[in-house]
Amino acid sequence: MTNKNIQSDRAKKRRKARIQPPLIIGWREYVSLPQLGLDDFTAKIDTGALTTALHATDIRRFTGEDGRDWVEFHPPDLGHSAPEICRARVSDHRQVKNSGGIAEDRYFIRTDLKVEHRVFLVEISLTDRGEMKYPMLIGRTALRGHGLVVDCGHSWLTRPRKPKKNHKSQGVTK
After folding, report:
1. Is 126 within 8 Å of 52 (Cβ atoms)?
2. For residue 163, what pLDDT is reported?
3. Burial zone of 66 (CB within 10 Å; 0-12 exposed, 13-18 middle, 19+ buried)
4. What's the pTM?
5. Do the strands 57-63 and 52-55 form a parallel or antiparallel pair, or are they unpaired?
6. What is the pLDDT of residues 83-92, one digit of tens each?
7. Average pLDDT over residues 23-38
8. How far is C-alpha 133 from the geometric centre of its chain's CA atoms?
9. Measured distance CA(3)–CA(148) in Å, rounded
10. Cα-to-chain-centroid distance, residue 77
11. Distance between CA atoms of 85 and 97, rounded to whole angstroms?
């Protein structure tokens, strides 16, 4: 196969991927970060935010065996089985304005994001979102080019929200 044919095959695959019908998502959805071992947690979809952010604490930069910068961090408590520490290669380190408009230095990583049945590579900043309701905020840069359409008037469109367990009423009869 010639180089021209290989390029043509790649172009056909890209066009076919774009032909995929759009996936309508709500402003809150269940997502996964499979490469980090973080499965099935809630995220807020925010088209007003440029970047994507993941709650992370105790962020520590180190030099990996490959000679590149890496980070390890404690991921959010998802309420179910998840790793205690995540590690990822640093893709960037830059300033980002937080929700209060204050510039913060943040590490960025690139990892796969899974929404419904679609998996695509995104850049994520690591920051302490402990005071926020959702452990992850997905901004418009991550959404662009992946056939996702946000219906801001609805939530949980890719699947129903899991019912909350009512611990108070268990075992109580009236």
Report:
1. no
2. 67
3. exposed
4. 0.83
5. unpaired
6. 999 999 999 9
7. 97
8. 15
9. 32
10. 15
11. 26
